[in-house]
């Protein structure tokens, strides 16, 4: 699709940046080939083996080196002119002297060599025997974490998702919660929705066992943030496939609560999910595992990273998974093989390039499109016996749901000077999906439902590019971290969706028949088929700017963005009848005019010297309703939202403990709900309002004891609407009484209260040394069904437990071998996650998962 004239200018700018990156990479490659590679200095045990506790503040490099020599008790020599004008970042915690010195000298253009086996000499990097690696954490607090890395224990202190710059979480005036690699390792989630179970403000499994966390939104299906649906961004770019739903490929997950449109464009005001894929590590990593679990799950994974060149400036990583499993529901399987190779090249000290590829084949994605009626789930009685969680109400012979996905991505960075840098992320995705399935359409009686066979073949191609220039400068005592960028995304999608309307297919709930052959032949006189066919395309472009202003303890965040969106559809409706094989094509749907909007945010944070950071912010959001129309074919106005948020963040000094509290007030206009009078269409309900507060704690209490805990209160209501509706009887589905206004009523399917806590403890010594146990509790409060609060879905409490055992702690011959077991919903509680008018989603029952992991 050609972009409209209003889009050409920003699109041209992005393509110019893409060309500039290619040229710059070529120059750096030539430069790198002309240089002599260096390797890490050969250090002796006398100066590198013993871990030392360091407490060195940020400041002049010369002062930091004096402090280093004093605290490490190691002789150090250098030349004053070499150090003049250079600065260093802080260092706190336990490190080997060589690792600590590497960190202090990072970015200075200097390195070191060992003198006499017991001391160090500071020299220019070109004079050193080798470049040095970053610090390896032994204990204490790492001075500065990688903002896209795994975090430390259950705590991450920096982020890229909040501002697209490397920024401490305590300096960002909105809520950001990080699911670290260690937390995922202890809980063993098998998709993104499960990984977000303990995250404040996030209701991650509102659809219960419906989607298995593997839908086209990268695992975002059914995930609600502050009451609104969400979108996944992978390495800063939105995607259109399920590649982000595979936890074996993920380094960390971030929930950015509140509007994120200023940095990412089209996102709902509730927030976005930021996912970082695995990339080459500076420290070698070699890991393989085999696993087993409930419903016949068998799994094997590998994760290997190491250097290619002796200097380590060229590194690789390969993550892979193979899994086959049943699911909670009979006849629905989950099968996947995938690989994620990546390569990082530090072309020179100021330039790096990372390449990633991904291929994933999922012949069965575990999706259960069967909703169960309220009779037998929400309501259980002699008339409505409980519907077993494993009930399959589709057809065994018409039960295919798979996909293939391929992806290429690169991340490029270059530092022109200490004032200005450039970075760019590009991704190309290609995916194919094939679905032959049934879905529940109507409740007939307490023993029977109507189902509709359908067939969908889809092919999607997505191109995304984010280019930005950023840097730092000072105006007197005021420091600025600024970024200016442009991103675009183009999605081309071809879909053929056919629905069998030949007859009313029914299925017994308690004794389902699994054999039937649907009639979906467009040219057969025996079939009556309806559906839609053809392509559509979507183009989005944004230009954004941001300035983070710091003065003493104050941090001011200002940003703005202009978005343009264009949508084109050549799809048409198709239908046949039973008397002839005539194919009736309707006109293509109306194409809305290109939409655009300006979004902005402003915030203020004050960081006290003792770690407390109060903040306040205002931000806006924009989501086009491209391709969505009412029953008259009229396009909807864009979703526009705004949020006020105030809160406190407290990072305990010199401890891995982060405490947060936030209160928010969100308004969104043109919120869509199902049109009860015109089936299959939506209607604009007007304004909705979500308000509440969140409190959370992420803490590494000791090296062996880690905790995450949170409480969320969300009150989401229809705030300003003229829509009315009658209340619905949950047993029969019939309406009763007079129509009442939806204004002031609670928006359905979002619980008002949520509380969770998860803790892990590893026994440090004694006979059980290396043995760890963990325990978690999840409370989900009641929610309403229907837009006029017809009935409630009750609250529920779930318990999770687990254990892990490092066999190498007791048996030296088994060093690197770890056994683990995780159990979710320990009591096998039967619960309902949410309900519509007449159907409900049933939650996941008890699930075991165990594995053996070997690291070397």
TrEMBL record:
Domain Secretin/TonB short N-terminal: 64-125
InterPro entries in the cross-refs: Beta-barrel_TonB, Beta-barrel_TonB_sf, Plug_dom, Plug_dom_sf, Secretin/TonB_short_N, TonB-dep_rcpt-like, TonB_sidphr_rcpt
Keyword Signal: yes
Subcellular location: Cell outer membrane
Any single biological process term in GO: siderophore transport
Signal peptide positions (record): 1-25
Assigned keywords, A-Z: Cell outer membrane, Ion transport, Iron, Iron transport, Membrane, Receptor, Signal, TonB box, Transmembrane, Transmembrane beta strand, Transport
Membrane topology according to the record: Multi-pass membrane protein
Recorded GO MF terms: siderophore uptake transmembrane transporter activity; signaling receptor activity
GO CC list: cell outer membrane
Family the UniProt entry places it in: Belongs to the TonB-dependent receptor family.
Protein name: TonB-dependent siderophore receptor
Source organism (scientific name): Acetobacter garciniae
